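Hi all, a correction to my earlier message: I attached the wrong file for Glutamyl-tRNA(Gln) amidotransferase subunit A. Here's the right sequence:
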Amino acid sequence: MASPMVARSLVGAGLVVALAMLVSGKHTDMFDQDGGRLDLWMSIALVVASLTVLLSIGLVTSEVPIPPTPRIKLGTHGYDLTPVNSPACSGFVLRVVARIVGSKVLGHLIIRPILNNNNPWMLRDLARQIASERIPIMSLPFCRVDGKTVTDDMAKTATDALQQGLPRSYTAKDIVGVMDYYIAYTSGAVKPSEMMTQVLEGMEKLKYMSMFMASDKESVMEQAKASDERWARQAPLSVWDGVPVSVKDFIKVKGYKRSNGMTLLDSDPVQTKDDIMVKRFREAGAIILGTTVLTEYGRCPLGYNSHYKGPFNPYDESCYSGGSSSGSVCSVMTGLVPVGISFDGGGSIRLPAAFSGAFGLAPTFGRVPFDSDASVTSGNVHAGVNTATTTDTALAYALLAQNEPGHMINQVYDGDVHGPPRPHLTDFDKIDNFEGLRIGVFWDYFNDSDPEIAASCKAVITELEKRGAKVVEVSIPHLKAMSLAHGLNISVAFSALEETHFYHRDDLEPATKIQLQMGKTVTGTELMSCNRIRGWAAQYVKKLFAEEMDVFITPSCPIVAPRIAKDALECGESNLPLLSVVMRYVPLVNLCGFPGMAIPVAYSEKEKLPISVQFVADHWKDALLLRLSHFVEKHMFERVPPKHFVQMNLNSS
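and the right structure:
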């Protein structure tokens, strides 16, 4: 029997011929008005592709066999991350490839060789060794701790902040954060309704950025007038009263349809209740400005959604904004809101922050309760926020991270007896002395980034060392397997939604169709292996946190925001090699459930685009990340306002 390499070559050659035939027929009317009928060129091309694949049946196996003796010894140290080996395409070619790959007959036989080419055998090879060490399989990366680890005094730092506020972590004059709103309303300098008039005008000016899915102006002004009345009585509900907030269109917002980044259908219902996160903001007096665009069902970390022709990077509209929480981060960085609700299943809070110069906290897995189906179908998704300042992040965390009795998180954590440890903001403003703090660095991993980015992030380490912190060199083995385990795990979770969210959806982006096929190609053995590796990785890194380090540092992304390819504007792009690069520092958080935070630290000399540093901490140590972010923002970061920005005036005219 021919080797898998020969099989891949046969398939590849056939597809090249098929695509060439399709391109030669591009001038013809390929589809009818409904996009459903194939013309002669498409039919011929599919026949060529089909024959080629059928010739290779038996040459392509689902899984590459592994010998009884391990090929990779568990725990072997060394840096092994490499970019994914996969074709990339966009525009017309992407549409054609997606149609072929989406075929039930051909999809598996085309996608599986690509997957095999990235060595998924290593997952099974390592998983059987993990099983022999009796390390439990982990599907939900929960970590249970003694409830007494957070005292009443510690918990009070979070609840007090909601009524009294926090020190401002910034000096930039263009920023209008939560505390700026609070101070202006307290002094009577301006009313919420006056501010919301400005915000709505700003939304109209920035409409070309395609950030918002929907905004009900009447509802916004009704909320603002209700806030006016509370402030007139000197009875605000919290520091959030009258502050605008945007919501990633991934959860329910009362009065709005939910798109999940897909095209809206007439049959899509208007939501009749709010998600927990939205409800908490409303109860604190915040004004829900509207829902924001995300990549199609949060699939892509680049940020562009071809259905809605945006969003774009606030610093350079020719670049990606980062995703999938692209609309949320853009609504923050353009000055419209201090905070945008976001979610992170594969860097979708941290990468938008890195690309667009925002702050992005992906809290400990299960820290912030929410109601979306992703909260129960995926062990990867962290609920959090994108903000313009550390102070705003901390105030949002204090509000959103409180326990929700009866929620799935509490039930899984301890049978809904107490729930996770209470959130706190201990030592948030202690940013001049870091004596005893152990900063873990895996230098080969850290330096696998653009030299300018590595240098900017090293400067953070240097400044912390000056204030007493200690650098500890650490090594984390099998990063390649961990990255692959995260990628396949989230692909399977995504594909599992096909029969509900994507059923009869012919209007999906081409790359989404390819992604769905990828998840369906993963075998049950591989998925179990992914979760064995998750359990091992969480245990390994947790031991590092216990014995060697308090926090782990990397760049947030190894490159600055990439440019959007011209033909990607039409229907997006499928570019797994690029995604594997931008997601290089993502998996530890999503695979193992640790909290991670992306913090802007500088701007690139040539492109003038943001550079971001990432800190990762042990489970439930979110407050440490906020303290470090406060330090970086106050002592190191000099903000440059984005090109696309609306300045809010906190004085009534």
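Sorry for the mix-up. Residues 355 and 561 are 5 Å apart (CA to CA).
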